[in-house]
Amino acid sequence: MRDIAIVSFAQSHHARAISTHNEVEMLMPLLGEAMGAAGITKDRVDFVCSGSSDYLAGQPFSFVMTLDAFGPWPPISESHVDMDGAWAVYEAWVKMQSGHADIALVYAYGKSSPGDIRRVLSRQLDPYYLQPLWPDSVALAALQARAGLDAGTFTAEQMAEVAARSRRAAVDNPFAQLAGDVEAATLLDAPDFLAPLKMHDCAPVSDGAAVLILAAEDIARELSDRPAWIRGIDHRIEPHALGLRDLTTSASTRLAGEKAGVHHGEVDLAELHAPFTHQELILSEALGLGDGVSINPSGGALGANPVMAAGLVRMGEAATRISRGDANRAVAHATSGPCLQQNLVCVLEGE
Amino acid sequence: MAEITLPPRLEGVEPVRSIRVPASIHYRYTAGEASSKFLREVAKKRLVGQQCPLCKKVYVPPRGCCPTDGVPTVGEVELKDTGTITSFCIVNVPFMQNLMEIPYVGALILLDGSDLPIMHLIQEIPADQVVPGMRVEAVWVPDDEIGPTLESIKYFRPNGEPDAPLETYKEHV
Amino acid sequence: MGEAEVLTAPLVIEYPFSRTTGPVIGAFFTALREGFIVGIKGADGRVIVPPVEYDPETSEELTEIVEVGSAGVVTTWAWVSEPLADQPLDRPFAWALIKLDGADTAFLHAVDTGGDATALTTGARVTARWRAARPDGDTTEDDGVRRFREGHILDIECFEIEGES
After folding, report:
1. Residue pair A250/A283 in contact by the 8 Å Cβ criterion
2. Which chain B residue has its CA at the smallest distance from C16's CA?
3. ipTM, two decimals
């Protein structure tokens, strides 16, 4: 197995609507920033992989146009996943393991603002039994939240604490959209949004993008003073039918965490892609994270949720803290599909 | 594929073979800076491209980025509304909401001064007389109908100049 | 460039699809059109509703379609105070996962509580409110309004709390 590390990361200032820029204009400066931080120009990139979904833009093949931002000439080796960019990292990592790339650039972006993201996400559901009912992303998460509350898996107080802690942490994150000094007790009194979820239990609607650069072995050491090495990466998926799953636990996250080797060492911090407060509780339980682990120091998806990039941002936030020397071993997680259907876990470590 | 066994109440009943599930989603699309600037100039009857600071190519309509260098395109390069057909096709197949009389010609037109052909319609010439290299000019809609859309140009028509030699446009084919 | 100067335009994406069902999913919709509900027996004998074509654990093809009840138990639910377009009801309602009598898995539908946000509880029994059957010889044109059962998940308009009509 080759040693592969994250050597550079850039993200946008995520916002409710970045309406003055199209996707290309939103992404372009970040590509320059990430490559500049690694000290490379695009000719050194062996493989480009991106994550995005045309359903957010409402334009088929919009991801092909966004590639203009990289400047694919002379012709490049490139791929795309219609998923969060974390899965594009997985594909790039596999490509690099096969020896076909030493430096890979991964980007991800999503503008939720053009459409109604809650309705758009219903198009990923079973087309026969679910889509015609148009169950939205918040509704499905709410079903999971109540199942967990009923089973005693977590409490409303714990959910409010996740929201409050995330908002406070986001104050130190210049890229976050929602930040502030709030107390869980105050949040508990807020009215229901889609019961049992309150507005603060849900990630904001965001536009945003992120870019990260992977490099192998000595090249990683050339491009970064302290690369964040990928010690393990794995992803697992559960059946899509809600009735076939136990919504109060995340078996796929547990298995992905085991395969990625989460507990082969002490975990300092975890960036968990949890667009709903109760999901952070489910994920941290599935990964066996103890009280000593700092969870979502960036504020997490509750601080900013650029759909299709939020998972990649978790990886970038974890990697950045390792590179800065603020942490030595971190877990980054990304999710896809309703109610934590599919989960990716990545273990990062400084040298 | 194995045989399905049905409960008594479904025996002999005409089965459902497909379901009707129409869906529509509404978006508000943002053109972004570069496209917005371009379309606002079209509303003033001007075709304005942008230039890549590295390769110097002039792009129209601009999207804010040079697709070969991956850098922002800058500036304003006003272009004439005349150009050369680099390629074209004759459409013989009617399709939904087709407002054109069949056959009609769709063409790639390299506007004078630009490096990226635009796509538009060719009219006022029989379809079988259109050739690559043909010199054409824009026919705009009446002034009171002009707006921030490429539909402000109704179509392009031959402008009477001799066909441009291949060398002058072959890089753009 | 300021927000006022950037141009925007409405964009409607339409998917006017009909979807082929195959024999297993088709059986579910045939039953709905006829006014009842079916599931399928999994490899371990459990009854899966709605039916799936392959066992989720063993991957083997499943073939035995069985009838289940039109009423069952709510295993979890959520309250929608502001329905979105195209959802089953245009007034406040509950989503619920419902385990029908005879089924071992729950499936998703809407529950109409007449707008009462506190009426539904986990464990409550709910029963299907069926849409009318198409009368013999009826030739009402399809104008987009859903009037009759046709083989569609909304042949069940929604569920309601048992004992309340």
Report:
1. yes
2. B22
3. 0.96
